[in-house]
Amino acid sequence: MPTSAAPAIERADDDALQRVLRRAELAARIERQVLQDGVHATAIPGMHLMRSSQDVKPVHGVCQPALCLIAQGRKRVLLADEITEYDALHYLCVAHDLPVSGEVIGALPEQPYLSFRLDIDTRELAALMLDIGRPAEPRNGCPRGLFTGMTSSAMLDAVLRLVRLLETPADIPALAPLVIREILYRLLTSEHGWRLAQVATPDSRGQRISRAIAWLQQHYREPLRVEDMARSVHMSVSSLHHQFKAVTAMSPLQYQKQLRLQEARRLMLAEGVDAATAGHRVGYESPSQFSREYARLFGLPPARDIRGLRQPNPHARA
């Protein structure tokens, strides 16, 4: 082996070892902080820690922009018909509000799934971009609003320092905002940072689709008029359809359906309303259509699904 290559190999080996050690420390610190299965808010605003000691069936919800990092285990995320799996070597970034389902796979009591989530404030992202300049030129078209990438040593180190702050609460107000800013910087300057940059770039395609999603979230109970939606974000109907599907993997009508069904499920579970009432409240005129579409998304008719969710199972909602 040429001697000139030896230092580079040694540096690569050292970097790989440091990543292994940092991931092990991150897992240990999350496990100390989170003693029970579930999703747990922390003293750091926007930061959540998750634990599951067994596999978890798909959990549906609208995921806001966030960075997700696994310290131990694997997860499968479904967006429309697209499946994304990631593990402790990779991060997952959600750049837009997206209806997804998440499923923990391969978790065991002796080796639980452990992960970190940091919500992304697009205003902080835009402010950071003003300071550092655009990290990468936006590409043509609209990228998918959910993507994965290799977790760099620098990003892993910043996440670990943020989690460490939970053990020194007095330091959180002064130091947490600085570390969060660094994490956003590492994400923006990564290989896929341009995807996230689009959301915070004024009048970009990505930002227009974000505004279209916000409009749809406000009006999802009403009959969908795509013309009104397109007018609100200054796009043509055809351009909106094409770019909305590029970002969300679904049409505006399919997105609206997801919002309606997830809210109806919440109404039945949290407020105890019956299926017909829940369907009507979210905009369905036909109870039979509501039941059919509900079963297609969640796998069971409304009443059976809610009965199953109410059965005591400490791991079911992790």
UniProtKB/TrEMBL annotation:
Presence of the UniProt keyword Transcription in the record: yes
Coiled-coil region(s): none
Occurrences of domain HTH araC/xylS-type (ranges): 210-308
Keywords: Transcription, Transcription regulation
Top-level taxon of origin: Bacteria
InterPro entries: Homeodomain-like_sf, HTH_AraC, Tscrpt_reg_HTH_AraC_N
PROSITE patterns: HTH_ARAC_FAMILY_2 (PS01124)
PANTHER family for this protein: ARAC-FAMILY TRANSCRIPTIONAL REGULATOR, TRANSCRIPTIONAL REGULATORY PROTEIN
Protein name, per record: AraC family transcriptional regulator
Species name: Caldimonas mangrovi
